[in-house]
Amino acid sequence: MYAREKAKQEVLNALRKYIEVDVSIDDIETPPDNKMGDFAYPVFQAAKKMKKNPAELATEIAVKIGPSDLVDGVKAVGPYVNFTLKMPAFGAKVLEDVELKKEKYGQVTVGEGKKIIVDYAQPNTHKEFHVGHIRNAVLGQSIINTLRASGYEVVAASYIGDVGAHVAKALWGMEKFHKGEEFDKETRAQRLGQIYTEATKAVEENEDYKLEIAEVLKAIEAQQDPWFSLWKKTREWSLDSFKAIFKELSIEPDAWYFESEVEKPGKEIVSKMLTDGIAKKSEGAVIVDLEKEDLGAFLVLKSDGSSLYATKDLALAMKKEKDHGADRQIFVVDVRQSLHFKQLFATLNRMGFEKQLIHIYYDMVNLPGATMSSRAGNIITYEDLRDQMSERLIKETKERHEDWSDKKIAEVAKAVSIASIEFMMLRQDAESIITFDMDEAMSFDGFTAPYLLYTVARIGSIEKKAKKKAKSAVAHLTHEKEAELLRKLSEYPEVIERAGLKFHISAIAVWVFELAQLFNEYYHDVRILDDEDLDRMRARLALIGAVRVTMKNGLKLLNIETLKEM
RNA sequence: GCGCCCGUAGCUCAGUUGGAUAGAGCGCCAGCUUGCGGAGCUGGAGGCCGUACGUUCGAGUCGUGCCGGGCGCACCA
Predict the structure, then answer these.
(1) How far is the CA of A425 from the C1' of B13 (A)?
(2) Dihedral angle computed from the Cα positions of residues A165, A231, A131 and A345, in that order, rounded to the nearest 10 degrees
(3) Proportion of chain A above pLDDT 90, given as a percent
(4) What is the ipTM of this complex?
(5) Residues A537, A512 contacting (CB under 8 angstroms)
(6) Strand B contact residues in chain A (470-499), C-beta within 7 Å
(7) Contact A320, A301 (CB under 8 A)
(8) Shortest CA distance to A426 belongs to which of A123, A119, A135?
(9) Which residue is nearest to nucleotide B33 (CA to C1')?
(10) What is the mean pLDDT of chain A?
(11) Fold of A443-566
């Protein structure tokens, strides 16, 4: 049991003796200022039940409770019973927790025995991989990391849109406008995306093209050449490029699903739904009438018999269930598909699908001053963003490290720019729109990846310079900021648990930032090295080592690898 | 028209399943530092939490109306 959990348990045990209502660990709150105490129990409800004045009851309880192993003072402040941690003992337990568990510090067990499959990283082949896709993949991976840290068994499932109207459009555009063009291996995937955009514009100007593209789509679905071969070839171009991007961003799916493999099964499900009476024909197409659930009509097959997103999603859910049999299926998908998922889940329920289905949604990513849309042509691809940022970071890094090789500078700059992108995607609530300001993302000041990475590198540098080994001895850590750091470190497992239960990743980002701030304040107040009190120096080294390990653990959940130097 | 989301400091955003005096970063102003990595730290100014009612011992948080913004609502994904 982690230090904080154990302390809370002691608080609970004490409270239960004197209170006539049930108290659970969730009733223990944190006071707004730690000068008031570390834990607080508001007595309002208990007072009501016991028919007493809240402030009086709080006082009454407070005088009865004595100190325990990790909890020291108990005092009433108004209607609250406040508890203060017993400092040397509690701090020692915190450091012990971190040192014992190391990279596993913070992992909790709420999810043990439960299996979840998370659908994320769903780019479409033949289209560009832009910032919106980054948000999806990074958020999804971070949720997966956090669920794993919470004890769940998680299947990370990427779902690739390798068929559908967009593919037909891109291939049609290739033949129509770029027949015979040579495609360079390095850029061919992006070239496909450009052709897709070009084709989209062409269709807007000429309605007749729609029919031509519909023919292409049918040919691909029917596996007819030359379209089918062209599809197979170009699909690989996109997949190769996605794999490279995933690697850079630490996106690591362990299962790959493709729209092309669920298309046929999807159509079969639809025809079974027709015979079962779950679906019906309407205006030539097939729908599921969800008026009863107030969800309108769910279109599951087009009137020309070709499939839709919905067709494939039905089969996908079934396939995932067959492959992995998870207790829950989670879908990390853009908020604009909320209705689609409500309809999909309602339909699956009608088909007798019983596992829990959750849509985790996120909003879009804008650039300052402009909403991003592929139609307006102001989307920014992952590669462009990364390269623009790297370029500027190379310049800055060069100025600071004149002795570094170009190769080392380029590597560090790339790592920092990727970390900067990831952090911007995760530091904010998923439900809110991100305004991606590149300058802010790369800034070494503020709520940014570079600030955090710098702090970790700085700790590493101190540790490297120290001639003595760290040795935890909390008795030597008497500075006020040292106690604050220990308390902060103790919160980490709770942060993970809450983030995992609510899929609230930004809370991890905020917490790591607060820890970094606290460390930097400490660093300026206290000189760690060249201390004549060797035991104290070693104890401080142990403390900052614990800070570094915990920051690293937190950043890892955010897909960010720390750097030794930068 | 119906539905979902959002509205908190000049800007970008937090606010722990309703709890104590509403916070952070950036920017601005005033300082510290020849440093164990200053890419940092300290202090300051800056808020009728969109608005009006309601529920509650207690509302930025819950409910309803209104105002303002975004998104979605059958053959796109």
Answers:
(1) 13
(2) 50
(3) 80
(4) 0.95
(5) no
(6) 498
(7) no
(8) A135
(9) A524
(10) 93
(11) Isoleucyl-tRNA Synthetase; Domain 1 (1.10.730)
